[in-house]
Amino acid sequence: MKFSITGVNHKSAPVEVRERLAFDESALSQALVALKGRPGFCEGMILSTCNRVEVALTCEENGHSAVDVDQFLADTRQVQREWVTPYLYHFEDSEAIRHLFRVAASLDSMVIGEPQILGQLKSAYSLAKEHGAVSGFMDVLLTRAFNVAKRVRSETDIGENAVSISYAAVELAREIFGSLSGKKVMIIGAGKMSELAARHLKRSGAGQILVTNRTHERALEMAELFDGKLVDYTRFLSVLHEVDIVIASSGAPHYIIVRDEMKKVLDARRNKPMFLIDIAVPRNIEPTVNELDNVFLYDIDDLQKVIETNLKGRKESAEDAEAIIHEEVERMVARLKAREVAPTIVKLQEELERLRAGEIAKWRTKLGTLTPEQEQAIEAFTKSMMNKIAHGPISEIRRQASQPDGHYIISTVRKVFRLD
After folding, report:
1. Were 48 and a residue from 23, 113, 127, 395 both cysteine, which residue would form a disulfide, CB within 3.0 to 4.6 Å?
2. Which entry of 15, 34, 50, 370 is annotated as an active-site residue?
3. Pairing of strands 2-9, 89-92
4. d(CA 48, CA 120)
C-alpha cells in the first residue's frame, strides 16, 4: 500500500492559482466521486481551504504516480495539466505522513498555531467517509493525525499567544482587567477588524456591546450581530463614561476622541480604568490621551509589536512541536510496517502448523493406540518445538520491519520457508 499527498499551498502557489484549484462544497463531493473512479484508487481525501488544496491517496504499490493527481486536478478544475504541475508538491509514505501530521498540528499554516486547519481537516475526512472514499488504512492515519494535533496543543504553547490584531487586543484587555466578565464595550466604526475584536471580546466574557457608526444601517447591522445596543454617532461621547473598553475603527479623517474630552469621561467614571483600542488609519484617538491616568491606549502599531513578540514565541514552540511530530511519524511508520509483515508471520505460523499436523498424522499409525494423556503430550511437545523454531524468524521479521532494507530479509524468510 502506498500513501501520498499531492497539492498546493500558500508557499508553493500564489492566490490566483489556489483559487482556481479550490473546491466549493458541491464541487468537492463531485470530485470525490471522480477520484474514486481513477485507476489504482484505494482510498482518498481532498482538503480544500483558502491556503491549500491537497489530495491524499492510498493506492496499490504500483498504481499511482504524481502525474495521475496532476491530471485529476486538471480535469476537475478545468485547467491545463502543464499549467498546474509546476505549483504542485508531492510526498510519499513517511514524508506524506509527516506532512499530514504537520498540517493537522498547524505547523504548515500561514499563521503557525492557528486552530482552523484542524477543523477543516476533520470536515474533509468526514466528507470522504460519507462518500465511502476513506476506510481502513487512511482511517488509522487520520485518526492518529487528529491525536497528534491534540498532543501538540496540550504539550506546547503553540496556540497560546495572539497573532492577529483582534486577538492581540483581547490579550491586552485581559492583562489590564484580569477578567473581562461583564465589561461593557463600545465599537466606534463598523470595519472588519473592529467586528473581529468585538467578537473575540464577547467570547472572552465581555458584557453588553454598544455600536456607533456614521452610517446608520451598518451600525444597526453590527448591533444586531452582537445583540448589542445602537448609539447615535452624534452623541456617542455622552455615553462613553459607561464603557470599559473602546474599539475605534472609524473612517474619520481626524481625531474623534481627544484628550480634553477623555478627562471629562474619566471624571464621570471616577477614574475607573478604560482600555482604548485604536485600529483606525488614520488614527481616531489623540495619542496624548494615553498620558492620562487610568487610560490604556493602544494603536495598530502597538498591537503589531505584541503580535511580533507572540509570533516569535510560537516559532519557539514550533520547535518543540516538530520534535513531537518526528516521534509520532517514526511510531506510525513502525506500526504500519508491522501491519505489513503481519500476513507473513501468519503464513509462517500456518505453514509450520501444517507441517506439524502432517508429521503427527504420518506417525500416528506407527505409534499405535495412544491414551488421551499421550495424545495431549504429543500435541504439547510438537507445538512447543514448532514455536521455538518459529520464534527466531518471527522476531527477526518484526525487527526488520522497521529497517530501511528490511524487506530483503523478510523476502529471504519467505523463500526459506516457501511461503510465496
Report:
1. 23
2. 50
3. antiparallel
4. 8
Q: Could you give the CA distance from residue 138 to residue 389 in angstroms, rounded to a whole number? A: 36
Q: Between 127 and 204, name the one with better pLDDT.
A: 127
3-state secondary structure of 347: helix
Residue type, 86: P
pLDDT digits (tens, 9 = 90+) for 220-252: 988 888 888 999 999 999 999 999 999 998 888
Q: Which helix (H) or strand (E) covers residue 26, if one does? A: helix 25-36
Residue 174 confidence class, pLDDT cut points 50, 70, 90:
confident
**CATH match for 165-305 among 3.30.565.10, 3.40.190.10, 3.40.50.970, 3.40.50.720:** 3.40.50.720
Contacts of 230 (CB under 8 A, 6+ apart): 210, 211, 212, 219, 220, 223
Could you give the residue range(s) of every CATH 3.40.50.720 domain in the chain? 165-305
Integer angstrom CA distances of residue 12 from 9, 84, 89, 97, 121: 5, 11, 8, 19, 19
Cα(206)–Cα(156) distance, integer angstroms: 28
CA pair distance 58, 47, nearest whole angstrom: 15
What number does CATH give the domain 2-161?
3.30.460.30
59 is an active site residue = no
Q: Which set of grid coordinates corresponds to residue 22? A: 479550490
φ, ψ of residue 113 to 5 degrees: the values are: 90, -5
Query: Which residue ranges does the chain devote to CATH 3.30.460.30?
Result: 2-161
- Cα-Cα-Cα-Cα dihedral sign, residues 376, 377, 380, 386: negative
Answering whether pTM is above 0.70, one says no
C-alpha closest to that of 172 among 7, 309, 338, 73: 309
> Which residue carries 495424545 as its cell?
375
- Residues comprising the chain, all counted: 420
**Distance set, CA 234 to CA 188, 249, 261 (Å):** 11, 16, 14
Stated as kind and residue range, the H or E segment containing 211 is strand 209-212
Backbone angles phi, psi at 167, to 5 degrees: -65, -40
pLDDT at 290: 95
